Amino acid sequence: MSIRRMNCCETTGFYRPPICSAEGGAAAATGGAAPAEGFDIRILSERFLRGPGFWTYRPALEALLDIGALEDFPSDKLPGLPERLEAWLPGLIEHKCGVGVRGGFLMRLREGTWAGHIMEHIAIELMLRAGLDAGFGKTRMAGDTPGIYKLVLRAEDESVAHAALHAARELLLAAIKGEAYDVQAAVTHIRETHERDGLDPDAQAIVQTAGERGIPCIRLAGALVQLGWGQALQRVWGARTERTGAIAAGIADDWLLARRLLDEAGVPVPDGVLIESADEAWEEAQDIGLPVALRPLTIGAEGAALHLQGEEEVRTAWERAHAASDEVLLERCIDGEEHRMLLINGSLAAAMLKGSDVTGQVHPSTVALAALACRVLGLDSAGVSVVARDIAQPLETQGGAFVAVHPAPSLLHYLGLAGGRALPAARVSLQQMFALGSDGRIPLAGVLGAGDGDGALAAHMLARMLRLTGRCTALACADGLYLDEHRLAKGDARSFEPSQRLLMNRSAQAAVIETTAHAILAQGLPYDRCHVGILMGVPSAQGLDEFLIKDEQMPDVARTQLDVVLPQGTAVINADDEDALTLAKYSDGEVLLYSCSPTNAALAAHRRSKGRTRKWGRAVFASGNALVLAAGSREWRLELPTLLDIDDLPAALAATAAAWALGLPLPVIRAALLHVEERTRSYDTDLGGLAPL
User: Fold this and answer.
1) Which of 25, 65, 211, 474 has the maximum number of C-beta atoms within 10 A of its C-beta?
2) Are the C-beta atoms of 669 and 638 separated by less than 8 Å?
């Protein structure tokens, strides 16, 4: 992505300078000290930004602070504060801050910095100590009232960021007042909050790996995560994928049934019988022959006992296993060690013995038997346990056998194995769902209008163009949610949740999502990247008083729509808006300009320039009764019976430019433009919103 306005408070990596001052007091600090008990920090509000927004590309918590009397007392005027913080949080030495070097924040702390900025670093360090991915924060003065600041913390989970923010406030006030504070208790609380509300390790590993491949992720509920959008989406629940059928999982969970099917298919399993009492366990153990093993049949239950040699051992083991499961299996004990193998789509992804990687040692015949076991049970992926003396030798030569097949293997057991490669199990699991080269995305265009309904009109026009190519197109805009020619919901759908609903629909083959400055500031964009980002102008700050934002900051808000354009995508920008033009450099992809005037100077210069991905810059403009598509000196005219209404023209130009960027055929674009007037047709809200456009 293009360089984003980052805080001076990146704890790792290179320093990315902020657009304006990160923090600073409104009044010059003066000598003397106020009574410590007179200091307080109030958290006036909190807002969780779930998608790319004004501050950063990832989810973040934005808090509004009132530091009160501390506005006149930066850290160098608070005796002992730097020393106490450094003693409590020695990891602060790693925070580079705006200085850009190790120890940078501590330098700022001694030279004098304000309470909001200090809270930010404390919160980051507490999250780092809790073992979480943290490192980005930002603190900036807000509005014109002294002592009011915005503090931003990047965090995947709102509850974790909330816990870190409030712990940072309490710790800082304790340090200022010279009071005791239990740092470890705060760290433990943050860690436990993450364990309760965050993704489990399996889902987190898959999400992290998906991010490395550019596959978008949407957390649906708990450990249920959607990867990809629309018709390309796949869902995972922990380590279990959608390809794991319910019948297959049910068979695997019933080990008695599973082992019978495996035995009939030629997969070696130990002889065994279901046991209902300690007396029966000892009787059957004598019939099978010692040594024996006892296992609880409840999936994931502990209490398995191996190599049981005598009556007392058998009875004790049965009591322990029965406490973990109502059903207990007694088996002939196989001589050897239990090896765990992870199979995905018939291939061995990883194998381990007592935590050590043995992936490359497994005999091919054993891998083939494990794959057969998965096919017999109908599993696309499974955790297979096999007991053998030497995993490098065939099982038949040593009496080895399979003792468990789990339909939802925990990747946690295999992460970091397979030759030392990072997250190999998650990568193989992801490759099963998305072939290499696939990112799970459907064509998506984002639209930010300048006002007066121009964004909704452009979104409708572009959606019509996409539908005419045969794609089932999802649309979220000012007047509702649409899927193809049906309106799913009426009303303003330019906020986060309605737009994401469309990306969760398997029918969608393309999407057009309109947004607003308010939505960007309140929640962030509902997608991480887009193929086309349309900027029709820089909106004004009117109506955005709740965000304490000024007109001069609005280009930063509008820039968000261009920041998320994919490198292979296109930023479509209104060349008649000078403020919008200045933001073209922030697009990672191609820039395509449009203008109502064929003599627009910026348009002419752009056509002569070399694009990032093309020999010449592309542009769209109006000329007579035609819309002209131009690349360098070449031009293609879309003749219309009459020129579009002047109020519709900017939207038509934006939609045409976006459709061209998406590779739509020119006859399709023209056909859609001939029916612009159809946007005014009424909708039937009594039939579930299913009336056609």
Assistant:
1) 474
2) yes
CA-CA distance, 362 to 341, in Å (whole number)? 9
Backbone angles phi, psi at 640, to 5 degrees: -120, 150
Exposed / middle / buried, residue 667 (Cβ in 10 Å: 0-12, 13-18, 19+): exposed
C-alpha pair distances (Å), 244 with each of 119, 412, 526: 46, 19, 29
pLDDT in tens, 213-264: 999 999 998 888 999 999 999 998 877 778 788 888 888 888 889 989 999 9
620 - beta bridge partners? 594, 629
Contact status, residue 25 vs residue 72, Cβ threshold 8 Å: yes
The total number of residues shown for the chain amounts to: 693
User: What domains does the chain contain, in order, with CATH numbers?
Assistant: 36-197 (no CATH), 246-433 (3.30.470.20), 444-680 (3.40.1190.10)
Tell me whether residue 37 is exposed, middle or buried, using C-beta atoms within 10 angstroms of its C-beta: 0 to 12, 13 to 18, 19 or more. exposed
Long-range contacts of the stretch 553-560 (C-beta < 8 A, 24+): 554/517, 554/579, 555/579, 555/582, 555/583, 556/5, 556/19, 556/54, 557/54, 557/517, 557/520, 557/521, 558/448, 558/517, 558/583, 559/583, 559/586, 560/52, 560/53, 560/54, 560/448, 560/520, 560/525
Three-state DSSP class for residue 535: strand
Give residue 1's pLDDT.
52
Closest C-alpha to 623, from 634, 633, 609, 638? 638
pTM exceeding 0.90: no
d(CA 21, CA 17): 9
pLDDT digits (tens, 9 = 90+) for 40-69: 999 999 999 999 999 999 999 999 999 999
Cα–Cα distance for residue pair 644/353, rounded to 1 Å: 71
